[in-house]
């Protein structure tokens, strides 16, 4: 049977969902590892990444079960959820790639002011203090602070932020196209007959 047939669609959909399961477990594992070893102290960041990983895991599991059993209802809801995820992810990825320097500065400053734990993580990892200016009367976890040789963190963050946004946007855009591929495969697979099933049972 050619690749346009039932078996090929089933295997392709299963392979795609196995990939999503692996990605979700990787996200959960990396977030938990970062929290365990103290690389990230912000519970909101860790919780957010783990939450996205768990959501992706259950969506992929639903798609995998639906593909293996050719379950029409499960495949329908999987297709709808995957399409909504595609719209959100494509929009966010495009925004990451299109954001300009001024917007980037504003978002970084808002994020900096909203989380004390993120400030400590950044100051410690980049060896800097404050966002745009160093306050000698404040507390700072950077190694340079006791020597009064620290520089503001804004410039150091900017060195990495642009590359990170483009990297995240590119990866997100890539996965968004795999999601629309999954929607197309699911739609196609739902409307194919299982050659092993009773033809009169197909709706």
Automatic annotation (TrEMBL):
Membrane-traversing stretches: 12-33, 45-66, 73-92, 164-187
Pfam family, one: Tetraspanin
Domain of life: Eukaryota
Keyword Endoplasmic reticulum annotated: no
Cellular localisation: Membrane
GO cellular component: membrane
Keyword Phosphoprotein annotated: no
Keywords for the protein's UniProt record, in alphabetical order: Membrane, Transmembrane, Transmembrane helix
Annotated protein name in UniProt: Tetraspanin-13
Source organism: Lates japonicus (Japanese lates)
């Amino acid at each position: 049977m050619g690749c346009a047939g039932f078996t090929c669609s089933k295997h392709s959909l299963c392979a795609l969902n196995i990939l999503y399961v692996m990605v979700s477990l990787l996200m959960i594992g990396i977030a938990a590892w970062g929290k365990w070893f103290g690389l990230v102290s912000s519970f909101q960041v860790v919780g957010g990444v783990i939450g996205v990983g768990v959501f992706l895991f259950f969506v992929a599991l639903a798609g995998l079960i639906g593909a293996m059993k050719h379950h029409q209802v499960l495949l329908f809801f999987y297709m709808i959820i995957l399409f909504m995820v595609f719209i959100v992810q494509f929009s966010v990825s495009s925004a990451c790639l299109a954001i300009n320097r001024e917007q980037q500065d504003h978002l970084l400053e808002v994020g900096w002011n909203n989380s004390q734990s993120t400030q400590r993580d950044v100051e410690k990892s980049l060896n800097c203090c404050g966002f745009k200016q160093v306050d000698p009367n404040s507390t700072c976890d950077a190694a340079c602070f006791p020597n009064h040789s620290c520089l503001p963190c804004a410039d150091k963050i900017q060195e990495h932020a642009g590359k990170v946004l483009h990297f995240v946007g590119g990866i997100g855009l890539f996965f968004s196209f795999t999601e629309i591929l999954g929607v197309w495969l699911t739609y196609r697979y739902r409307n194919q007959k299982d050659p092993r099933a009773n033809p009169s049972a197909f709706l």
